[in-house]
What we know:
By secondary structure, this protein is an all-alpha fold. It has a domain at 15-44. The protein is 62% helix and 0% strand. The chain contains one helix and no strands. The chain is elongated and about 45 Å long. The mean pLDDT is 82.
Amino acid sequence: MNPPVDFMNNNGVTRNPSDIAWLEKRVHHLKDEMYMVETRLERMR
């Protein structure tokens, strides 16, 4: 993953650090959700 300074959108504009922090939190949350779903699927086998 790129360091926060290197985050750019399609127009080449650097994202606000608070936006990056929000995105990082969201990705972490989604990873947790995926882990829970995978665990449930394994139990169903």
